[in-house]
Amino acid sequence: MNWVERATELRQWSRSGVRAPHKPLLLLYALGRFRRDAEGELVYSAVEEDLKRLLAEYGPPRPTTPAYPFHHLVGDGVWEVRSDRGSGSPGTGVRELRATNATGRLAPELRTALRREPALLGRMVRALLDANFPPSLHSDLCEAVGLGPEPAEAEPLPSSRGQQRDRRMREKVLTAYEHRCAFCGYDGRIGSVSVGLEAAHVRWWAFDGPDDVDNGLCLCSLHHKLFDKGVLGVGESHRILVSQRFVGHGAAARAQVTELSGRPLIGPQPGAAPVAAPHRAWHLAQVFQGDPRPARADSSTG
């Protein structure tokens, strides 16, 4: 059984790049629990709040429930559910899962494979992360599911898209934006080397985002993380959007986040392609959290 391949091929609802990472998040959470307690079971009523938080933080910006993956992951051969009614899930209803004391855990064959080959867990984690989330979120997500730092044995795997990443993407994007963060203008260097600047995909690679300049932004590490978490977005006329859900009362939070609302992006330089409208639209629909804050009155210039 190729468990890594099975992890990357979880059946997920999909249409036009819509994100539905419910099953990958549950499987990552289960792998984290297995690492700490190989014999333990996940009682739905006990882990429901943990799973809700994961979906709220790393899932799409639309209402959802952890009952869906808890029930449906069984069909992928990596998960089993039992309840007071016996083997098998009682259904997708939250009340049913709670009332019947439904419990889930990794499938017996997978548990056996993980005990026999401890490095398999790291490879499965890497596969799930690469197939569903951008690299900027990997470490935080591993911490959130109880895996600690991203497993050291989890080396990058070949792309499931059947094509290689363009290693020149970072340099092309940083050059297009003249080595400045498109949100705040940060342009730090050590000697001739930029530090703290990254090439962010607008439409994530895992969801068919190309390694092209018109799908990239040069961002500092902070704004890259906030962009991938849906705090920041890019709207019409390439102006910065800030989610109303973001809360930050200090001066730094205001200066580095909320006061960006409505400002135009910095760059790209003349002759370089700006972010393409389809990629902006995907990010706004699948990543950006909630409604944008009103633009500041003095945000007409950068």
TrEMBL record:
Keywords: Endonuclease, Hydrolase, Nuclease. Residues 4-148 form the ScoMcrA-like DNA sulfur-binding domain. Pfam families: DNA-SBD_ScoMcrA, HNH_2. Residues 148-158 have a biased composition (Low complexity). Residues 148-168 are annotated as: Disordered. InterPro entries: DNA-SBD_ScoMcrA, HNH_nuc, PT_DNA_restrict. GO terms for molecular function: endonuclease activity. Residues 181-234 form the HNH nuclease domain. This is HNH endonuclease.
